Amino acid sequence: MRAFTVERYGTKDGLRAGEVPDPEVGADDVLVRVHAAGVNPLDYRIRDGEFKAILPYKVPFVLGHDMAGVVVQVGDAVQRFSVGDEVYARPDKDRIGTFAEFIAVHQDDVALKPSTLTMEQAASLPLVALTSWQVLVERARVRPGQKVLVHAGSGGLGTIAIQLAKHLGASVATTTSTANVELVKSLGADVVIDYKKQAFETVLHDYDVVLDSLGGQTLEKSLRVLKPGGKVISVAGPPDAAFAREVGANPVVRLVIGALSFRTRRRARRRNVEYSFLFMKADGNQLRELATLVDAGVVRPVIDRVFPFEATREALDYAEQGRVKAGKVVIRMT
């Protein structure tokens, strides 16, 4: 089958198109013909080797973390899916590879795609929708009346997180550029901070939850807008020891990772708030819940641009260079 594989870490030229063997289908797997795949910052960060210490993929390996497609084969133990089902998924971290014609995914990580969406729309959702769910529902347990700040509200993650937080009953603030103020308002944002005109940390206060997708100074400033007992949950900040344990890192790597977030955690404690890092997990049950919300009109995907499969490298460059105006970049199989 055709696929885009990482042949060496640390360079854009390390991602190449070529022929690879068809996936092996285990007893609990479904084999999916990929119709579309989403592009995420995680793709080029893994390509560049940023996660080698904790996600040591052996080159060559197929890249890609989001997909939608049609089931063409099921394993002997699969009961939930049948050939012909239209599905979407974020494969488990140990089984990535959606930039390909086919992928085998464990049945627990797959869900029927939202019936109201095209393949391209469905492929844009799994990673960012699961991240939003795991931050806001699982970890933060957002309740009606709470105040939630979502950074980068016009991004792939932000567009979904705003809608989910609003559905959970929160008052939602977000940061964005001037060009996207009306977009994030249409998604449900109650307070919009144009970062080109205002400093969010001087305007917002007493927030219960911050979803940080930017890291760096934005993360440090986010600690200031939380009320005592509030939580900042980051997908871009320094990983913590809990994350290292989740991915099964060895004791030495755990110590190193814990040291990376020491300063941020210490600053959080001084303010009587909590910092944690989240690396989302594959979860078919959560995707089913999200599909229900999508089909009910509660959550809608936002797509910036669709590239043909042959232009996968260009799609990653487009996203990495910050040319995305709003939402997600998607690759369509041809």
UniProtKB/TrEMBL annotation:
GO terms for molecular function: oxidoreductase activity; zinc ion binding. It comes from the Bacteria. PROSITE patterns: QOR_ZETA_CRYSTAL (PS01162). InterPro entries: ADH-like_N (IPR013154), ER (IPR020843), GroES-like_sf (IPR011032), NAD(P)-bd_dom_sf (IPR036291), Quin_OxRdtase/zeta-crystal_CS (IPR002364), YIM1/Zinc_Alcohol_DH_Fams (IPR050700). Keywords: Oxidoreductase. Residues 10-331 form the Enoyl reductase (ER) domain. Pfam families: ADH_N (PF08240), ADH_zinc_N_2 (PF13602). This is NADPH:quinone reductase-like Zn-dependent oxidoreductase. It comes from Streptomyces luteogriseus.
